């Protein structure tokens, strides 16, 4: 079976950690990096020094995991990094990463509506990245409705795997993330006329309070 770890990668900065995970049977490793610099990444994670640790973790994971582990990076698109996606892709390519997941911010965890990017601006930034990097990186775009990226449907993916996966968070809480997020989506009149409705999860609602 497949065993996936999605992580901020900071512990991977310790030499040998990625190698031990691979030896233990890890098949998929997805490291979260949310910007091309400490100023951007650390501001989003609210953790000073996390950019340095995560990028070091990526370097060691590339070196230690071997061909048996499907290694990639996840970047959550937020207001603070939407204008820096191409720079992030360039950094990852230099670090040896060849797989990038771009995930539009979802109403889960500490996410709140003040950091949600304008979806039209996010789509434009993703389009520019795809045009420049699609030949050098395997790119998947998650949680952005098809209507925002016409002509790029092959890169858009609904993470239906959440429906069947057993997901355990560091809080030790078990959550069916697919069901949870399904309750935060909506479809409008335009969605009802879309030919791709059956394969689209709709648009996310951020109805929580502002953090200003």
What would a concise description of this structure say?
It is built from seven helices and eight strands.
Give an overview in words.
The chain is built from seven helices and eight strands; from the N terminus they run βαβααβαβαββαβαβ. It is an alpha/beta fold. Strand 1, helix 1 and strand 2 (28-32) form a beta-alpha-beta unit. Helix 1 (17-23) crosses helix 3 and helix 4 runs parallel beside helix 5. The model has no long low-confidence stretch (mean pLDDT 83).
**What level of helicity do the residues show?**
25-40%
Low-confidence stretches: none
Gyration radius, rounded: 17 Å
Q: Please summarize the sheet with the most strands.
A: 6 strands, parallel
Which strand order do you get reading across the main beta sheet?
1-2-3-4-5-6
Task: Compute the number of strand runs.
Answer: 8
Q: How do the helices and strands follow one another from N- to C-terminus?
A: EHEHHEHEHEEHEHE
> In oligomeric terms, what are we looking at?
single chain
Query: How confident overall, as mean pLDDT?
Result: 83
Q: Give me the secondary-structure category.
A: alpha/beta
- Given the C-alpha coordinates, what overall shape results? globular
- Count of helices? 7
Portion in strands: 15-25%
Terminal CA distance: 44 Å
């Amino acid at each position: 079976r497949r065993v996936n770890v999605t992580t901020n990668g900071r512990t991977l900065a310790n030499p040998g950690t990625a190698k031990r995970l691979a030896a233990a049977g890890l098949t998929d490793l997805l490291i979260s990096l949310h910007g091309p610099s400490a100023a951007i990444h650390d501001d989003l994670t609210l953790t000073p020094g996390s950019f340095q640790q995560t990028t070091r973790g990526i370097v060691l994971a590339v070196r230690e995991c071997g061909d048996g582990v499907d290694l990639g990076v996840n970047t959550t698109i937020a207001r603070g990094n939407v204008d820096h996606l191409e720079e992030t892709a360039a950094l990852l390519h230099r670090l040896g990463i060849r797989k990038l997941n771009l995930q539009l911010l979802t109403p889960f965890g500490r996410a709140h509506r003040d950091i949600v990017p304008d979806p039209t601006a996010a789509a434009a930034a993703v389009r520019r990245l795809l045009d420049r990097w699609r030949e050098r990186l395997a790119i998947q775009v998650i949680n952005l409705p098809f209507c925002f990226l016409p002509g790029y449907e092959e890169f858009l993916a609904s993470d239906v795997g959440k429906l069947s996966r057993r997901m355990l968070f560091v809080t030790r809480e078990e959550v069916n993330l697919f069901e949870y997020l399904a309750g935060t989506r909506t479809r409008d009149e335009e969605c009802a006329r879309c030919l791709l409705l059956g394969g689209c999860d709709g648009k996310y609602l951020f109805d929580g309070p502002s953090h200003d």
